[in-house]
Amino acid sequence: MGPVSPEEKPNPLQDANFCSRLFSWWLNPLFKIGYERKLKQDDLYSVLPEDRSQHLGEELQGYWDREVLRAKKDAREPSLMKAIVKCYWKFYFALGLLMFLEEGTKVVLPIFWGKIISYVENYDPANSAALHEAYGYAAGLSACVLVWAVLHHLHFCHIQRVGMRLRVAVCHMIYRKSLRLSSSAMGKTTTGQIVNLLSNDVNRFDQVMIFLHYLWVGPLQAIAVTALLWMEIGISCLAGMAVLVILLLLQSCIGNSFSSLRSKTAALTDDRIRTMSEVITGIRTIKMNAWEKSFIDLITRLRREEISKILKSSYLRGLNLASFFAVSKIMIFVTFITNELLDNLITASQVFVVVMLFEALRFSSTLYFPMAVEKVSEAVISIRRIKNFLLLDEITQLNPQLQSDGERIVDMKDFTASWDEESETPALQGLSFTVRPGELLAVVGPVGAGKSSLLSAVLGELPPSQGKVSVHGRIAYVSQQPWVFPGTVRSNILFGKKYEKEQYEKVIKACALEEDLQNLNGDLTVIGDGGIPLSSGQKARVSLARAVYQDADIYLLDDPLSTVDAGVSRHLFEQCIRQALKEKITILVTHQLQHLKDASQILILKDGKMVKRGTYNEFLKSKVDILSLFEKGNEQSEPSPVPGAPTAISESLVQSLQSPRPSLKDAAPEDQETENIQITLPLEDHLEGKVSFKTYENYFTAGAGWPVIIFLILINITAQVLAPGLTQSAVKWLTVSTILFGITRSLLLFYILVNSSRTLHDKMLESILRAPVLFFNRNPIGRILNRFSKDIGQMDDLLPLTFLDFIQTFLLVVGVVGVMVAAIPWTAIPVIPLGIIFFVLRWYFLRTSREVKRLECTTQSLVFSHLASSLRGLWTIRAYKDGQGFQKLFDTYQDLHSEAWFLLLTTSRWLAVYLDVICAIFVTAVAFGALILVETLTPGQVGLVLSLTFTLTGMFQWCVRQSAEVENMMISVERGIEYTDLEKEAPWELEYRPPPSWPHGGEINFNSMNFRYSLDGPLVLKNVGMSIDPRQKRGIVGRTGSGKSSLIAALFRLSEPEGGIWIDGILTNNIGLHDLRKKISVAPQEPVLFTGTMRNNLDPFNEHTDEELWNALEEVQLKDTIEHLPGKMNTELAESGLNLSVGQRQLVCLARALLKKNQILIMDKATSNVDPRTDELIQEKIHEKFAQCTVLTITHRLSNVIDCQWISVLDSGIYREGERLHNLLQKKNSLFYKMVQQLGEAEVAALTERPDISHSDCVVMNVSSGQPSAFTIFESAL
C-alpha cells in the first residue's frame, strides 16, 4: 500500500502562464471541485519539486553541518540562525525589495488624493486644463491602487512559501536527528518534546517570515511620511511622529517580555504533551488501576500554569492591537492641536493629505512592526530550542567492515562501558568473547545483569569506555519488547525487502506463524499503532520473522522466547534458531534454561561482569552450580534500556548458529534488492460543510457566561459609535474614551477566548480518559497528540488574535460605511453591490478552503504518528540500517501535509487578489465620480468620501479575509469539540456501590461469557463458563494467542463482556468501573512506567509509607538494585522507565500490584522477562503473602503453575479443560499433558515427579544418560 498517495496529481502551477500565476486562475478547477463535493486527499495537487521535504531538508542540513564544523574550529557554540540566514537570505532579500516598493505606493497615494481635493477646492468650470490634470491624477490614483494590490499578493504568497520551506526543512532535520540520538541523549528528551518542536515551535517560522521585513520597512516608511508631512504642514508634524516613536520604543520593550513568556510556555507545553503521550501509551494500565482522575488532575494542573503564561502574552498582544486602532487618532489629534497652537492656517486638501499619510503608516508601523517584534522574539526562542535538540549527542555510526578474507565474526575484547557517565558501576565490565559463523552463544543471568546491554554494545548503541568490539557482517536484531509499525503483517516482516514467496513461507513456518495468520485472515491483516490486534507472543514472532527474512550475518536475539508458550518456544528454538539460522553468528539472550545444552557457548553474566563462559559439557564437568552464580541476583535481566538515571541495566543477547557459511554476500545493504517500507497510516475522518453556529456558541460559552459575552458586544458597539465621531468639538474626550474602550474590549476578548481554549482542553482530556480502550486501539497516538498539541496551540495563540482582528475591522467597516452614506447618500449605490460581491466570493471560497484546512489538520497527524512509531523502534531501525527508508517515509508524509498547506496559502491569495482588484475598481469609480459630480460637492465632502474609500478598500477586503481565516481556524475548535463528545465507557461510579469490604472471599464465576474487543469485531472468548473458588490459586495456560489476556480484559471490563461475570455474588456489570477495578490488582505483561521518581511510580498517590514501599520492593527482589541507585527511591526515571531493564520494569509493576493488597491478584505473564531463579523466589513470596487471596496466574512458564491448586487450559478463545494439576498430568490425551511434553524429558520429569503442591528441590537424573539435566544444573548453579 505504500505511503498514502495513489496517483500524483501534477501541480498546475508548474505550467501556468504569467496572468494565471498573477491572478491565481490555475486554482479555478480546484474551486469548482470543492464547490461540487467534499474534497478528498487525492484532489490535492502534488508538491512542487522545489518544495519537497527531502530537497529542502538536505539543503538546510548542509548549511547546518558546515556551521557546526566552523563553530568547532572557532571554539564557539554553533548558531542555527546563521545556517538559516545563509540558506534563505538571497530570495528573502529580493522579496523585501518587492515589499519596499509596495509600501512605497501606499505613501504616494495621498499625494494624488490631495491634488484631486485641491482641484475641487479651486474649482473653475472654465479651466479645462485643470480638469484634464485632475483626470490624470484620478487615473494615477487608480493605477497606484492596482499596482499595490498586485505587488502585495506577489510578495505575500512567496513570503509565506519561504516560511513553509523553512518549517519543512527544520522538521526534516528534527526527524533525522531523532533517528540518530544516542542513548544518553534519549534520556534528555522525550516524545512530548519532539512532538511539540514539530507542531508548535516550527509554526513560528510560518508567522515570523510574514512580518520580519517590517522591522526595517516600517521605520523607513515613517521617515518618508515625515518628509512629506513636513512639506505639507511644516514643523507641527513632528508632534504626531513623536507619539509614534514613543509607541515603537514601548513595543520593542514588550517584545522582550514576549520572548521570556514564550520560553516558559514552551517548557510547560513540552511537559503537558509528554505526560499526554505517556497517558495514551499507558492507557490500559491507567484504566486497570482506575487512575484516570489523578492523571486528569495532573495534566489540568500543568495546563493551568501554561494558560497563565499564555494569558499574559495574549494581554500584551491585545494592547498591541488596541494601540493599532487608537494610535492614528492620537497622532492626528496631537498634530492638529500643535498646528493650532502655532497659529498655522490649513486647507481642506491639506487636512486630508495629513490624515491619509497617517493612515498609510497605520498598518506598517503600528500593526506590523509590533507584530514583527513579537514574532521575532518568539521565533528566536524556538530556534534556540531546536538548536539545543540538534546539538544532542548522536550515536557513532558503526559500519561493519568485512575483513579482506570476508570472514564474519563478532569479537569483544576486555569491553567496559556504562550507560551514564556519572554512574560509578559500569553496565558491562571487562567482557571478552568471540562468536564465529555457525555458533550460538547463549547469554544468561539474573535480572539487571547486563544481558541487553551486551547486545547494545554489539549494536554500537553502548559506546565502550575501554576495550573494543569488532563486528564484521550485517546485523539483524530482535528487541526484548517487540516492535511492530502500523502496516500489514507482511510489510512488517519484509521490512523493505522484496517479497520472495518461497523464502517468505519458510520464514513464516520457522517462526510458527502459520496458525496465527490463518486466525487473523492472512498476512495482509493491518496492524494498528502499538500492534493491535496481535498478542504479545505474536508480535515477538513477527519481529523474529523480520530478522530471519533479512538474511543477515549476525543475529542478536533479546529474549524472544519469553513471550511464547513452551511448545512454540521449542519450535522457535529448533526450527528457527537451530535450523534456519544454523550458519549464522547468533547471540541469544534467554531465560529458557532448557535450551542451553544446544548452545555452542554459554556466557553467564551478573552485575555486568562475566561470571563464567564455556560449553555446556565444560559446565557439566566442572560441576558448576549455576543457580548459585545467580544467588544474589534477585534482579531481573531484561530488555534493553535507554539510559537516563544510572541504574542496573540489563541486556539481551542474540543467537549464533552452526557451520561455515556457503555464499558470502557483501556486507553493504545496497546490494540487496530492496523496496520502500510500506506503512499504512489511515487518514482520520473529518466533518464536512460549514463550521456550525453551535461550534461558535460552544467555543464562546466555554470561556464565559452569556452576561459577559453580551457585555463584550455592548463595549464593541460603544467603541465603534464613538470612533468615527472625530469631527465634533468633544474631540479630546472622544479620543480618550475610544482608547479606553478599545483596550477593554481587546483584553476582555482575549480573556474569554484563552479561557475557552482552557475549558475545551479540559473537556477533551476528560472525554479521552473516559473513552473505552478500543478508541486508543483505533486511533494512532499521533492523531490524538495532534489535537492536543497543534489544534490546542492554534486555539491558544492564533485564533484569539485573528478573531479580535476580524471583530475590530468588521466594526470599523460598519462605522465607515455609516459615515460615508450619511455624508453623501449616493455612495450607497456602489457600496451595496460591493458588499454582495464580497460575501458571494467569501462563501464560494470557503466551500473549498474549509475542506483544505481540514485535510491539512488530518495530514499533520500522520507526521506525528510516524515519529512516535519510529522512536519506539529506534534500535531496530538502526540495527537494520534502515534510517534512510524511514526518513523517506517521513518526507512523504511531510509532502502530503505540504500539499494541503500550499493550497491553503494559495487559495487565500486567490480570494485576496479578487477582493483587491474589485476594491481597485471601486476606488476608480469613486474618484472619477467625484470629478464628474464636482459641482454639487463641497471639498470637505469629497475629502471625506475619498479618505473613507481608501480606508474602506483596505479594511473591507481585510475584514472578509480575516472572517474566512477565522472560519478556517475554527476547524481546530471543531476538531477539539469532536473529542469532547466521544463514546464513553460505562460510568466510573454508579448509585449502587458495593460494600467497602467487598470482595471478602474472591470467588469469581464466568457464566457462559462471550467477549469481543469491538462491536463489529470477532469473538475472542466464546462461551466461557468456569468458577474460581474463594482464595483459590488458579493457573491459566494455553498456546500464545489463545485468549488468556482477553480473559483479564473481560474481568476488568476493558470492553463490555456478554454473559455474566460474578465476583462474590455481585454482577460486575452492575457496579461502576472504578469500584470494580480498584478491587483487583493486576501485574501486566507489558510494564508501563511514567516519567517521575521511582517512588511516584510505585505509589502515585502517596497512600503508603516508605516502609511499605521497601517491603514491596524486597518481595519482588528489587530492594538491592534500588538501594544502589544514586537517589534510591527518589531516582528520576527516564521516559517510560527506559533506564531500567525490561525485567526490572516488570518487577516494579508487580510491586505496585502487591502494594494494593486486594483480595484478588492477577499475574498476567508478569515475570516473563525475569530469570527462573528470581521468578521462583517471587512465586514463593506471593504464595506466602497472598495465602488468603484469590490469585490467577497466567503464564507460559509451566513451572509457575506447579503450585496452583487448579489449572485451566484455554485454546483459541474456548475454555477446554480445568482440573487439579495431578489429574491433568495423568491424562495422556489432555491438552495440558501435551504442552508439558513439549518441554523435553528432564523438565517433564521435574514437573511430574514433584509431590502434589510442594516445594522440594529434587535432582532428577536424566534416565538415558545418567547425568543431571540442564534444568537441574541451572537450578543448582543459579
Automatic annotation (TrEMBL):
Gene3D superfamilies: ABC transporter type 1, transmembrane domain (1.20.1560.10), P-loop containing nucleotide triphosphate hydrolases (3.40.50.300)
Membrane topology: Multi-pass membrane protein
Gene Ontology molecular function, alphabetical: ABC-type glutathione S-conjugate transporter activity; ABC-type xenobiotic transporter activity; ATP binding; ATP hydrolysis activity
Reactions catalysed, as given in the entry: 17beta-estradiol 17-O-(beta-D-glucuronate)(in) + ATP + H2O = 17beta-estradiol 17-O-(beta-D-glucuronate)(out) + ADP + phosphate + H(+); tauroursodeoxycholate(in) + glutathione(in) + ATP + H2O = tauroursodeoxycholate(out) + glutathione(out) + ADP + phosphate + H(+); glycocholate(in) + glutathione(in) + ATP + H2O = glycocholate(out) + glutathione(out) + ADP + phosphate + H(+); prostaglandin E2(in) + ATP + H2O = prostaglandin E2(out) + ADP + phosphate + H(+)
Entry cofactors: Mg(2+)
Presence of the UniProt keyword Cell membrane in the record: yes
Record's subcellular location: Apical cell membrane; Basolateral cell membrane
Cited SUPFAM superfamilies: ABC transporter transmembrane region, P-loop containing nucleoside triphosphate hydrolases
Name listed for the protein in its UniProt record: Multidrug resistance-associated protein 4
